[in-house]
Amino acid sequence: FAVVSVTLLCFVQERGALGFERHYHVTDPFIRRLGLEAELQGHSGCVNCLEWNEKGDLLASGSDDQHTIVWDPLHHKKLLSMHTGHTANIFSVKFLPHSGDRILITGAADSKVHVHDLTVKETIHMFGDHTNRVKRIATAPMWPNTFWSAAEDGLIRQYDLRENSKRSEVLIDLTEYCGQLVEAKCLTVNPQDNNYLAVGASGPFVRLYDIRMIHNHRKSMKQCPSAGVHTFCDRQKPLPDGAAQYYVAGHLPVKLPDYNNRLRVLVATYVTFSPDGTELLVNMGGEQVYLFDLTYKQRPYTFLLPKKCHTSGEVQNGKTSTNGVSNGIHLHSNGFRLSEGRAHVSPQVELPPYLERIKQQANEAFACQLWTQAIQLYSKAVQKAPNNAMLYGNRAAAYMKRKWDGDHYDALRDCLKAISLNPCHLKAHFRLARCLFELKYVAEALECLDDFKGKFPEQAHSSACDALDRDINAALFSKSDNAEDKKGGGPIRLRATGRKDSISEDEMVLRERSYDYKFRYCGHCNTTTDIKEANFFGSNAQYIVSGSDDGSFFIWEKETTNLVRVLQGDESIVNCLQPHPSYCFLATSGIDPVVRLWNPRPESETLNGRVVVDMEGASQANQRRMNADPLEVMLLNMGYRITGLTSGGAGGSDDEDSSEGQVQCRPS
């Protein structure tokens, strides 16, 4: 009995220690002391992929040199190097689960997938079914002999190493839905439920598939005949209902024509699940990093005119009178609507002193035109007081002034949130109309502005209202804008004109049912490479990390979306960031032929020379880079300084406040 008790106690202590270690292995002090520990040298080309084993004592890397190296990262040693048999750049490397770290899988630009036995340094399987570059491999612990690949031929293929066949099977054929030009770029399996597979491809939409439903559907159908290729994909049948869910940043579909005109490509370069499987993180090439909540899903915010509200004297700017009456806002797929029923609105709760100080600091930053600083301070306060309408309204004003990609859509979301908390928030109503106009919802902006004038007649002839009215009417009568303006408030249908990239009716239905993002992370640049990663950092996914075209990698707090650290990780571009499974330890790589390891440095260590102190300056430069034309980007990469690029920092002053109470864009 005593032996059993001691054994059980040791087991509990071990589990407790592991739980403590994993819970606290990434903390804010550690992030702020993160610095370069070592450089692992051994490759002779760009290092395009990194992968930890489950224990975290091995790190595999793949490179343009067609070699894979297995490292002992804790002792900075190269354990094994082998030529993979590929004839082009390696883009993905994965340990096969439950293989004792013996089996390694690689995918490369030669369209091949190779399986290697590391104990004998031999390639034991070679799959050549893809017809274009293989960009990612995915594995799942629940299926130890199975893995998947995503390639630029638009196919997701499934492999089972238990079968004697040297061929794979098509699981998903994106070309059936999006035409022959679609390219699959990345994929990942949910770590908590291995039946769910996320796929990123060309375009702004990210797809989540239920593998089990697809298999059951295919089993109920006759296998289509195919010359020499075994497949369970029936090209006459779509995916079963419920087998696919789409996710998209709500403003991107309407922005797509503009991006296409400027040769700005939108493509998901990396997708990954949070450790608990409830969130999906996407690095959207040509845009920002987005986090999607898979549990509490929300439709993109389009606009439907509010029906009723208070008179202007009762509630304004986040402050509610005690006798205020409201209609409550329902957010759903086609926008927001004020319900007909009347409900009581509680008075606006005063902020506690420490949050009031943060709000005042944010207001001061806003007054100094430090838009990003103001946004971060408002976000910090919003996290602590998520039901304060004034904070959302103020943050919306800062977004509208900064004008980075996606800022007007985030401002629109904040305005809607402010109105849901206080249906007669005067500034939020006006800012909503301006956001709709900036997002090309011109007819809806006019309707919203007319509604605003009716609710707040004393503002109807303010300079801000007049200016917005002129802008809207000019856009409505402008032939150049008519082709891009979204009419009628319904979902946007993007149908390609060419036969090769034609979009099926099933695809359009899935797109129109897409879910919107929860958080957006800004500051990095992702336009040059299509393998750039973004990852959760910490066992509780407390932080988000991403590579960037400026050679840095960026770290944000997940919940506030605030940027907290920028480090120089490469002389050119950081593509890969793979956090250690249980330590505050990060491996990165990019264009340089080295793997860099990062961990918290001792407090006694001298200042880390790789810290980018001016995070705001780096972020602004990356926003300019993303909006530059290809020639300007080439010159920037060559070291030339481009003048005349707009910073997107300063907004107009057409809606400044006056003593008569005109509509203002300043915070409350």
- Name the strands of the widest sheet in spatial order: 1-34-33-32
User: Count of DSSP E strands?
Assistant: 34
Could you name the CATH topology of the largest domain? Methylamine Dehydrogenase, Chain H
List the uncertain runs: 3-8, 227-235, 303-346, 484-498, 641-661
**What is the CATH architecture annotation of the largest domain?**
7 Propeller
Distance between the termini: 68 Å
What is the strand content?
25-35%
Q: In CATH, what is the class of the largest domain?
A: Mainly Beta
> What percent of the residues sit in helical stretches (DSSP H or I)?
25-40%
Helix count, DSSP H or I runs of 4 or more residues: 16
Can you tell me the CATH superfamily of the largest domain? YVTN repeat-like/Quinoprotein amine dehydrogenase
Q: What is the overall shape?
A: globular
| Helix-and-strand structural type | alpha+beta
Radius of gyration: 26 Å
Protein name: WDTC1 protein
Organism: Odontophorus gujanensis (marbled wood quail)
Pfam families: WD40 (PF00400)
Keywords: Repeat, WD repeat
What does this structure look like?
The protein is of the alpha+beta class and 668 residues long. The chain has two domains: 34-222 and 237-300 and 514-615, YVTN repeat-like/Quinoprotein amine dehydrogenase (Methylamine Dehydrogenase, Chain H, 7 Propeller), CATH 2.130.10.10; 353-478, Tetratricopeptide repeat domain (Serine Threonine Protein Phosphatase 5, Tetratricopeptide repeat), CATH 1.25.40. The protein is 27% helix and 27% strand. It is built from 16 helices and 34 strands. Strand 15 (196-201) and strand 16 form a beta hairpin. Helix 8 runs antiparallel to helix 9 (407-421) and helix 9 packs antiparallel against helix 10 (426-438). The termini are far apart. It comes from Odontophorus gujanensis. InterPro entries: DCAF8, TPR-like_helical_dom_sf, TPR_rpt, WD40/YVTN_repeat-like_dom_sf, WD40_repeat_dom_sf, WD40_rpt. Pfam families: WD40 (PF00400).
